[in-house]
Design brief:
Radius of gyration: 26 Å
Strand content: 5-15%
Helix content: 40-55%
Keywords: ATP-binding, Helicase, Hydrolase, Nucleotide-binding
CATH topology of one domain: Rossmann fold
InterPro entries: P-loop_NTPase, RecD2-like_HHH, UvrD-like_helicase_C
Shape: globular
Organism: Streptomyces caelestis
Number of strands: 19
Protein name: DNA helicase RecD
Pfam families: HHH_RecD2, UvrD_C_2
Largest sheet: 6 strands, parallel
CATH class of one domain: Alpha Beta
CATH architecture of one domain: 3-Layer(aba) Sandwich
Distance between the termini: 26 Å
């Protein structure tokens, strides 16, 4: 990918600096008293252990690039020397050679156990850190958060390298520069700064969805951060093991240059993202290759396919003989994975489905008329699902993952690793919605790679709303006939009028004209900040719908909230009460207790959400607010996602004028740099279906 790479996270940069705001969440465990945050941390711990094992598997230097010459060969030699421990990387910037593809390893089977909650940093460690922070002019209020990131020895870490402060979420390079200058008198040409800013830029890129960055794009970004020797900074980060470097062929083998070497691009990535993507490719290849026999007689599969309606028959036939199948379609198309689940159960298979969040879980459970539906996070943590077999694999023959565009590479890797040999995996979702909050574009990459059968639903979403959303999906914003006021456009001139009309719609107009009460109406706006962001809208809506002093960390019983147990997952809910344990919420029909110290970083008011927070949910009525100052945030996927959250009624508070149709017609999703298609190519042949 040769374009300039954006490292701006979803929604806005401001959103990324505030934890717990990005996307649809997961629910509190119903078993073993495992909280949502604990379950997520358990899954993350397993992911880190897996990465450490994969690092240990790397035996010796990369055995490729023998024909390279010049600076490319020099950099390869440097990387080899670093890997062998002989010496640091030489001062040269060039292209690294690719590692040969390894055969897909047998997955390590693990049984996720209920993990203890996050260990609070020692009081002494926090005090030591607070002292160092004050000495360097940093706010002492971040001491607890910094201790959680840097560990009990965080004070010594910062004394040795003050730019490690960049590892604390929300800290920017200019702030770390001031801290380093005050603490040690260190200047911007310090080698430690270059390495730390390299890692920070890759972390920002991961927040924006990239698993790797093109070397040239990374060097350019370092230049914008005033790193004096940007190329050398990248080499130093590689030498220290802070980041990984890859070389991928560009195009097919027929594109070789005159000297016989094919064109390549050099990519740099964080270890956790890069190795998760490799693990995902290996796991997908294993699934594709492992289904050799059909469960149940072939005639039984065919009978089930014949009896199914529409595209459901094609989906059942595809799953009968393949280990990996993709299914695309909107909300109405969920009837087809539901038909597959029922058919597979009828054949005696062990079947589970997993949705992005509890709202999707409840909706799909209604379609399949039974149990066997979980959330993805609950499935991986062990809080929900079928349990694990003796080898630690999920006890399933078929897993259907809904909301597949929301899978980032780390989550998708855990899903594939958790499946036993011979199991089938169906990834189903709407390709028009916003991509995952985490790094990668797994579903889109698989659709483009064509390594498995793809079944496109022919079942459109019904009514004027379905017609409107279908048009947006193909880049057209057409007027639709809405005799039942299914779609209403409310023009506004400025931000103040936008806030006023939004509150009026939620509190009065929609309940009176449409019959949907305020508690079932959701406001969606492009960002958290600004004159018509979620903060302003939530304050205005609280004043009308649940006025109160905010006695419990800014919240009152009855407040609608958006709870994020971990960054990137958001769970809509409502405040029930507060006591010594913390704030009690009702989220998706379950009780969640948010400890007092977690309220500020993980809880927002939730009458108004961003589109990323709303993914995976639907409401009877939705009010989408498009102020004039939000033009830069608009894109076709954003509009598609926001509009498609409505079941019965959509009001659009419209101040963006021609920017809205222009965004729908001309602004696709921001590109993400990933390696999944390249990693799959040598392992899985392209399919026709």
């Amino acid at each position: 990918m040769e374009h300039a790479v954006s490292t701006e996270p979803p929604e806005t940069a401001e959103d990324a600096e505030e934890p717990g705001t990005s996307a649809e969440g997961t629910e509190v465990s119903e078993a073993a008293q495992v909280s949502e945050a604990e379950a997520e941390l358990a899954a993350q711990r397993l992911e880190r252990e897996r990465i450490e094992r994969r690092k240990a598997e790397r035996q010796g230097p990369i055995e490729a690039g023998g024909k390279l010459s010049g600076t490319a060969a020099d950099l390869l030699a440097a990387v080899r020397a670093v890997e062998s421990g002989e010496k640091p990387a030489v001062a040269v910037f060039a292209e690294a050679a690719p590692a040969p593809r390894r055969p897909a390893p047998e997955p390590v089977r693990r049984v996720p156990a209920a993990a203890p909650g996050p260990v609070a940093p020692a009081a002494g460690a926090v005090e030591d850190l607070r002292g160092v922070l004050v000495q360097g002019g940093a706010p002492e209020g971040i001491a607890v958060q910094a201790a959680g990131v840097l560990g009990d020895g965080g004070a010594d870490v910062l004394r040795a390298d003050p730019w490690q402060l960049l590892r604390v979420p929300g800290v920017r390079p200019e702030q770390a520069d001031g801290f380093a200058r005050a603490l040690l008198g260190a200047g911007p040409d310090d080698e430690r700064r270059g390495r730390a800013v390299t890692v920070w830029l890759l972390e920002q890129a991961a927040l924006a969805g990239h698993t790797v960055l093109d070397m040239a794009a990374l060097v350019a970004a370092l230049g914008r951060q005033k790193v004096p020797e940007a190329e050398e900074a990248v080499q130093n980060a590689i030498a220290e093991g802070d980041v990984l470097v890859f070389q991928d062929a560009v195009g097919d083998a027929g594109g070789a240059e005159e000297d016989g070497e094919p064109p390549v691009r050099v990519l740099v990535g964080l270890e956790r993202c890069a190795l998760a993507e490799e693990s995902l490719a290996d796991g997908l290849a294993r699934l594709v290759d492992s289904v050799t026999a059909q469960d149940g007689a072939g005639e039984e599969w065919e009978r089930a396919a014949v009896s199914a309606e529409g595209s459901a028959g094609g989906l059942i036939r595809a799953v009968a003989g393949h280990g990996l199948v993709l299914h695309t379609g909107g909300e109405a198309s969920l009837a087809e994975p539901a038909a597959l689940v029922r058919a597979a159960r009828g054949l005696g298979l062990r079947v589970w489905a997993a949705a992005h969040g509890p709202v999707g879980r409840a909706r799909f459970a209604g379609l399949v008329e039974g149990t066997g539906v979980a959330t993805v996070a609950g499935l991986l943590s062990g809080a929900e699902g079928p349990g694990r077999d003796a080898d630690g694999a999920l006890d399933v023959d078929l897993l259907v993952v809904l909301d597949a565009p929301q899978l980032d590479v780390e989550t998708a890797a855990l899903v594939t690793e958790s499946l036993p040999d011979g199991a089938r995996l169906v990834l189903a979702g709407d390709p028009g919605v916003l991509w995952s909050a985490g790094p990668g574009r797994v579903f889109a990459d698989l659709l483009a790679a064509r390594v498995c059968p793809q079944v496109a639903s022919r079942r459109p979403d019904p009514g004027p709303l379905g017609e409107l959303v279908s048009g947006v999906g193909v880049g057209e914003l057409n007027p639709v006939a809405a005799p039942g006021k299914e779609v209403v456009i409310v023009p506004v001139r400025d931000a103040g009028e936008a806030v006023h009309r939004t509150v009026q719609l939620v509190v009065d107009s929609v309940p009176r004209a449409i019959g949907v009460p305020a508690e079932e109406t959701q406001v969606i706006t492009p960002g958290h900040g600004g004159a018509v962001g979620t903060r302003v809208l939530n304050a205005a809506l609280k004043e009308r719908l649940n006025p109160g002093p905010g006695r419990f960390g800014g919240f009152d019983p009855g407040d609608r909230v958006a709870y994020s147990p971990v960054p990137g997952r958001t769970l809509p809910g409502r405040v029930v009460r507060a006591d010594g344990e913390g704030l009690h919420l009702e989220c998706g029909g379950e009780e969640v207790v948010v400890p007092r110290e977690r309220v500020e970083p993980s809880l927002r008011h939730g009458w108004a959400l961003t589109a990323h927070q709303a993914v995976g949910c639907r409401w009877p009525a939705v009010v989408v607010v498009l102020p004039g100052d939000a033009v830069q945030a608009l894109s076709r996927p954003w509009v598609y996602t926001a509009f498609s959250r409505a079941d019965r009624h959509l009001s659009v508070v419209h101040g963006a004028e021609q920017a809205l149709p222009r965004a729908v017609a001309e602004v696709p999703a921001k590109p993400r740099t990933t390696r999944l298609p390249v990693l799959l190519a040598p392992q899985v042949p392209v399919t026709e279906g």
